[in-house]
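Figure 2 data, in text form.
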Amino acid sequence: MTPVQTLFGFQGRLRRSDWWLWVIGLAVAHVAVAAVISLGLGLDIFAAESPLGTLFGAARRLPLWVAVPFELLFLWPTTALGVKRLHDRNISGWPVAAFYAVGLVMGFIIRQGDPAATAKFSGLGGMLLMSFNLVYLAVAIGFLVLLGFLAGTPGDNRFGPSLKAQPASAS
């Protein structure tokens, strides 16, 4: 499978080792691109007490008109990778797509790190939001275990041939 097929297609299967390589690479690219965009917009990403922490949170401080296309740029490949990992486990990819869609909607409802946006969620609304976030976190941990640690289906499945016989891709 070519890198373009791996990152942008939803067909086939993906080994755990390849998934980890791609996910870590996308995470590094996400941080780097967010930092470059932030610096290009003149945002001071190193102003807090923890420069490394602010660097990793640079995407959260982007203006909405930049943050939306930026996050969508990374949403497609991460969804494609997750779908292919589920295919390796002989599971439909829709749960990954639904998980990312819910996260995207929640990101628009309340922007992390924006005190003006978080102040309106107090009382019962805040409790509901916190409860939803805890459930979402539990589902995220479940997906991490499912995608990153559990082996794929041995042999061929409905999504394609087994990848165990093939060497891990160098892409």
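Caption note: The longest helix spans residues 123-148.
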